[in-house]
Amino acid sequence: MTDDEFIRYLAAKKSLDDRSLNAHVYARFVSELAAAGARLRVLELGGGIGTMAQRLAERGAFGSALPEYMLIDEQPHVITEARRRCAALPFEVNALAIDAREFLHTQTGVWDVLIANAFLDLFELKSIVPLALRALKPGGLFYFTINFDGVTKLLPQIDASYDEEIEALYHRTMDERVIDGVRSGDSHSGSNLFMHLRAAGAHIMASGSSDWVVCAEENEYAHDDAFFLGCILGFFEESVGARSEINASRFRTWLNARRAQVARGELIYLAHQLDFVGRAR
Ligand SMILES: C[S@@+](CC[C@H](N)C(=O)[O-])C[C@H]1O[C@@H](n2cnc3c(N)ncnc32)[C@H](O)[C@@H]1O
């Protein structure tokens, strides 16, 4: 995927996340924000092109408060785009290209609010959760959303048992992913977060599902969903296609059939995810 394609993927994902974020968890997040005062210091981890900051501005989540909003992401081209897209927001977004773990090691007890959307599931929870929560002031608020939780479905079926084998291998690539020598990813991050948050002393105030469901209406996908689905199939290609268990030609036939389903507006994609709001100890 090129840098421009990744930016388009994140932009396409925004409208899907808008539809998918758990409304009950979001409402609790906003009511806790309202009680938090006017001069909030907000940190977003792996914030990409700033879609969460844009969403919170569009929805008026901060009311009349003007937060100091800091967004970090490891990819410099993504940060450049975040600066561009967030320039007109009613609050200033300070965007910084840095590895989240490196940044978090320098932060103890300094932020009122911590946000991570479609981010924590890229890491080993037992290390990232306490490291992230430590950055909050005592009792600080966290909003951790779109945490993948073990279910991917592509419909209609092509071959039920082969579909299942591919979906299982896709999850295994998340569980076995190693980046810079460190275990990174968990295909059951959503449900595992309950225990990891508690183990880190956090108080979970609300939780609920934020499943992605992409289905065309009359074979016409909404927004940029067709492009988004193409990216998801690209992720399958990169991850599952690199597995030694896979027969390359059978997998290529399967991928081509899935891409043809997208072209005809037939492919339905489901991913189970969970959202959390709560407070650090
Ligand atoms: C799935 S994207 C989600 C982006 C954004 N939160 C959103 O929902 O649009 C994950 C983001 O995490 C960033 N990322 C991955 N590993 C990171 C790390 N170690 N430190 C900082 N950012 C990281 C990627 O560059 C990417 O922008």
N-to-C terminal Cα separation, in Å?
40 Å
Shape label: globular
**Number of helical stretches of at least 4 residues:** 10
Give the total of domains.
Answer: 1
CATH class: Alpha Beta
Q: What is the gist of this entry?
A:
The chain is an alpha/beta fold and 281 residues long.
Question: What would the keywords be for this entry?
Answer:
10 strands; 10 helices; Rossmann fold; alpha/beta
Written account of the structure:
The protein is α/β, with parallel strands linked by helices. It has a single domain (3-279), classed as Rossmann fold (3-Layer(aba) Sandwich). The chain contains ten helices and ten strands. The strands form two sheets. Strands 1, 2, 3, 4, 5, 8, 9 and 10 form an eight-stranded mixed beta sheet that branches. Helix 1 packs across helix 9. The radius of gyration is 19 Å and the shape is globular. Residues 10, 13, 46-48, 51, 72-75, 78, 99-101, 117-119, 122 line the site of S-adenosylmethionine (SAM).
List the helices and strands and how they pair.
Blueprint: H1 3-20, H2 23-34, E1 41-45, H3 51-58, E2 68-73, H4 76-86, E3 93-97, H5 100-104, E4 111-117, H6 125-134, E5 136-155, H7 160-175, E6 178-179, E7 182-183, H8 189-199, E8 203-209, E9 212-214, H9 225-240, H10 248-263, E10 268-279
Parallel strand pairs: 1-2, 1-4, 2-3, 4-5
Antiparallel strand pairs: 5-10, 6-7, 8-10, 9-10
